[in-house]
């Protein structure tokens, strides 16, 4: 049997994204390797969402290239992305997951068991029949995570998954992220919450004006940042 093809590492090789004359990402050289979550931080407009979309393959670089496991042309089969405000389908929570399983090609006979497993994983067991659009914001975000996990991704990309959530809902989402990481799925997420970054990250990537200012282990970043910009950002100063 052939070994399963890996999406990792995701490598950005001198990669830029331009929108007309505006540079969104500027000559990014970065490797997203297997292991603990990589957390993207930086001020608004730093390029975090664009980097996630590029990692997912939803957009193409203007210059440079992105490779997944050493390949530049890879289907989206083993990657999934959850945006800050996911859209809920007009059906129950279980129906949302069942739809994702169908699009992923899972046999109909296996879907009910998988739905139950995913609902339990994200802490929504017993809520399968509840209309998805009547769930709380935190519950909807966890349901969006369950839908993404229906694809059995090797890489899960998250754009501000706890933005606007209260502390309890934030904790619940973070628990799901820890559980997912424990299953060997590579999580790459953007957040504005430095406390969350400290709690979850194995690696930090600080972006500013579309450039990687600093990257490395989260422990080293928070204890001894090596750039002036990183020190100022951690001190709560506005990066200009």
Account of the 3D structure:
By secondary structure, this protein is α/β, with parallel strands linked by helices. The protein has a domain at 10-87 and 153-234: P-loop containing nucleotide triphosphate hydrolases (Rossmann fold, 3-Layer(aba) Sandwich). It is 35% helix and 24% strand. The protein is built from 8 helices and 9 strands. The chain has helices spanning 48-56, 93-103, 108-121, 137-149, 167-182, 194-200, 218-223, 228-234, and strands spanning 10-19, 22-32, 38-41, 63-68, 79-82, 155-159, 186-190, 203-208, 211-217. The protein has a 6-stranded mixed beta sheet with strand order 5-6-7-3-8-9, with helices on both faces. The protein has a 3-stranded antiparallel beta sheet with strand order 2-1-4, with helices on one face. Strand 6, helix 5 and strand 7 (186-190) form a beta-alpha-beta unit. Helix 2 (93-103) runs parallel beside helix 4 (137-149) and helix 4 packs parallel to helix 5 (167-182). The chain is globular, with a radius of gyration of 18 Å. The model has no long low-confidence stretch (mean pLDDT 95).
What characteristics describe this protein?
about 240 residues, alpha/beta, Rossmann fold, 6-stranded mixed beta sheet, 8 helices, 9 strands
């Amino acid at each position: 049997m052939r070994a399963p093809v890996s999406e990792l590492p995701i490598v950005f090789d001198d990669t830029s994204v331009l929108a007309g004359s505006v540079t969104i990402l500027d000559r990014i050289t970065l490797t997203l390797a297997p292991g603990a979550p990589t957390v993207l931080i930086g001020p608004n407009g730093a390029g975090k969402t664009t980097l996630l979309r590029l990692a997912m393959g939803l957009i193409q670089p203007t210059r440079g290239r992105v490779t997944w496991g050493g390949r530049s042309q890879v289907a989206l089969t083993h990657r999934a992305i959850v945006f800050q405000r996911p859209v809920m389908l007009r059906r129950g929570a279980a129906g949302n997951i069942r739809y994702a399983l169908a699009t992923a090609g899972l046999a109909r006979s296996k879907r009910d068991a998988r739905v139950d497993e995913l609902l339990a994983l994200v802490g929504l067991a017993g809520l399968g029949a509840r209309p998805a659009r009547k769930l709380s914001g935190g519950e909807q975000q966890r349901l969006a995570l369950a839908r993404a996990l229906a694809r059995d991704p090797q890489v899960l990309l998250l754009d501000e998954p706890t933005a606007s959530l209260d502390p309890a809902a934030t904790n619940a989402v973070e628990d799901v992220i820890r559980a997912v990481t424990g299953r060997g799925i590579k999580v790459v997420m953007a957040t504005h919450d430095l406390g969350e970054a400290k709690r979850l990250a194995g690696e930090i990537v600080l972006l500013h004006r579309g450039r990687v200012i600093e990257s490395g282990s989260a422990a080293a970043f928070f204890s001894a940042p090596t750039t002036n910009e990183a020190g100022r950002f951690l001190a709560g100063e506005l990066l200009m």
